[in-house]
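G., before I forget:
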Amino acid sequence: MLEIKGLSFSADNGAERIDILKEIDLSVEQGTFLVLTGPNGGGKTTLAKAISGIVQPTGGKIIWNGTDITNLSITERARLGISYGFQQPPRFIGMKVIDLLSLAAGGKKLSRMECCNYLNKVGLCAADYVDREVDTSLSGGEVKRIEIATILARGSGLMIFDEPEAGIDLWSFAKLTETFRELHATSNATIIVISHQERIISLADEIAVLSGGKISEYGKRDDIFPRLLGEGRGCEYMRKGN
Amino acid sequence: MEKLDLGLLKEIALLDGVPSGAYNIRKNGTSAGRFSTENIRIEPKTDKQGIDINIKSGTKGETVHIPVILTESGYTETVYNDFFIGDDCDVTIMAGCGIHNCGDSESRHDGVHTFYIGKNSVIRYAERHYGDGEGKGERIMNPETVAYIGEGSVLQMDTVQIRGVDSTVRKTKIVVKKDASAIINEKLMTHGNQLAESDMDLILEGENATGRITSRSVAKDDSKQIFRPCVVGKADCFGHIRCDSILMDRATISSVPAVAAEHTDANLVHEAAIGRIAGDQLIKLMTLGLTEEEAEEKILEGFLGE
């Protein structure tokens, strides 16, 4: 179970202090598929990074399976079963896809067949990719799918995917939603996906809307999803009848 | 051969003993073993230190190993090895030098390799440099490679220097004829107070000649690296230089790629990048459970392809 209690994060931009996360409380039961959505700049990625240890919160606590992980390092959290798929994954000159997937799977060199299994799940043909370097010769969408494959290879108890759909073509996206559905059906992992896509949101057990650094809505998918679809917020200035 | 020699051979030629095929093993200035085959004849030079390697036209699938090991502290030498390669060959040549210096005097090997490659041949030339030993004496290697690549031939040259060489000044000159190509891959890591300097001239002389120089290097501690790769296009040709370097600690790297066109249809490109290991690369691998040190090691391992 993931428990977030009064989590805050503020950043200093030199001129002023900006509160990016404002005392967030959130409890996610083991095995839940949670979609974290909300407007750009609402704090979703910062929250994901705070859970995985990339960002150190300025207040509050993060508890994973009863252990307070707030002050643990990225490595320590990873070893406790927390993984994070980057929104914009880095590239590695010289490192092959098979090597990156092997590191993700725990360090032992994976067989081509094992790599094939993970790459297929993100719509990539293993024969074309296993020996390729994760460098600038790959497109943004290809690197993104390899990033998702690393999280699948890791097989953690908590998997956080940050906008997995970004940069991915329509055909691969269909495969990806099927993979998320299957992952949720066949494992007891807690899955948190930051997304704006209806097809991913429709897979969720629960939805949390993060806006202006606060959870503005949180609940079961069937309660929250229709409201999100109906809101069509648009421009506040226009809504006020100007 | 002694255990120490076998260790050096393993590092520089990836050998677990005497190689198969033609070979010449040089140790402290003398021959520690030589073998010629029907197609590949190795003979000592009579006017200076070194050997001539004659490869008959049509030789395919054979290898030549010519490792050099220095274990005597204070020994210095300049060796000339000339390769005369016929037409329609497909041959792999493994060279390299390992220095073990446990004394306080400088040990130095300056190897000058010249290749005369005929027509339509494919030559893979690999060269590894390695040094070890606890002595204060410097381990110095100054390799010089000159190659003339005949019409329609391909030379792939892979040079690797990962550990233990205190000072190296590398000079390379490659002349590429019509429809021929040169592929040069250089991998280098320096540490401590090491100095590595590399001057490369790739001259694309014939029509449809191609040349690629790919250099990847890592400079650690207080080491210093200087690269000056230059591609000259004298015909309708294609040349590309790419230098990527990772800088760590207090090390310095100077990367000065150059392209010079002497023909209006010469298509020449150069790219060079120097930087520290990106923070997001380290973080990504840490989210996979690696410590920062382990992540750094894996990034360098991948970068240098070791």
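The radius of gyration of chain A is 18 Å. Chain A has a mean pLDDT of 91.

More on Monday.
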